[in-house]
Specification:
The chain has about 375 residues and is α/β, with parallel strands linked by helices. About 40% of the residues lie in helices and about 20% in strands. It has three domains: about 5-145, Orthogonal Bundle (Globin-like), CATH 1.10.490; about 155-250, Translation factors (Elongation Factor Tu (Ef-tu), domain 3, Beta Barrel), CATH 2.40.30.10; about 265-375, 3-Layer(aba) Sandwich (Rossmann fold), CATH 3.40.50.80. The protein has twelve helices and eleven strands. It is globular, with a radius of gyration of 22 Å. The two termini are about 30 Å apart. Keywords: Detoxification, FAD, Flavoprotein, Heme, Iron, Metal-binding, NAD, NADP, Oxidoreductase, Oxygen transport, Transport.
Length: about 375
Amino acid sequence: MLSAETISLVKATLPVLANAGTAVTEHFYQRMFAHNPELKDIFNLSHQKSGRQPAALFAAVATYAQHIETPEMLAAAVERIAQKHTSFLVRPEHYAIVGEHLLATLQELAPDTFDAATSAAWAQAYQFLAGIFIDREGTLYALHEREQGGWAGERAFRLARKEPESEKVTSFYFEPLDGGPVMDFLPGQYIGIKVKPSQGDYQEIRQYSLSAAPNGKDYRISVKREDQGLVSRYLHDELAPGAQVALIPPAGDFFLDTQSQWPVVLVSGGVGLTPMMSMLESLCAQQPGRPVQFLHACETAAQHSFKGRQEELAENPWLTLHSWYNDQQGLMDLAPLRSQLPLGDGHFYLCGPIPFMAAIKGQLLGLGVAEGRIHYEAFGPHADL
């Protein structure tokens, strides 16, 4: 455990961190990539350019400093980050590199505050937190390898087929090159894919939600083509059936509770319906009769992915569909559904753009849904609603 003096020194730097804001993490990433360019094969450089990753890292650093006396308060955040780290194949040796550049950044940006004693305190605090992550990630890696059909690190898969699901979304089916089984996953989790786009300078790792129920044989992801998305454009425009990719075992802390019988409401915006399709398919296969409502919003009818499959599944009397097309009905409004939604006992799963989920969460809280029954997934670096 950390000493009282170490805790006091770290907490005393909170005002400095707050004033510096994301300048700290922007400097950190510039420094780290300049000294260790090999890490560009691990980090999502698109999120660096957009500013989302520096913002997420700053929030994590500040939150850790704030709760350094009570690390148990960070358990959910640690689990979320550890799951993501395993899909990037983060290893213990990477923590030493990150720690070196984080401490150097603090000393370079605020030399008066981060003197020898304070720097030593931050080094101890960082090592303590790194140890928590290393232990948890080691456990996850071991679990992945022991699972039926599981593996460690990268595994070679071939693209079996591509199927368009809507105007902008295409599904990709991957089968293991060795012909063996593949490990199951929890509905809502994602898988890491490693590719080398022809227009990129580095290997790229991305996480995409698994969009079908687990079957032990193959994996399906459903990807929206983004005009500025290096990897999504490569998958849509260049990756052909028969091509080989590396997949990293499924991970993620956002998943359906398949042990409960409480009513479920799946709420998605745009391509955020991909983990919801995995949940929906799994509910239909494993828990027929459990009340389910599927609420989906997208820009136009032409962008409504899996519409036919949803209508086919809705022949089950316990499944109800609701759709909103922004060009026709406007934004999703839950008030007219007040009497139909299980506001008192249902569990609500949200996925989509951050503003969409924030608006839906606000509506649900306004309708009386307890915050503990609202679960959500943010693509890319995590953001609180």
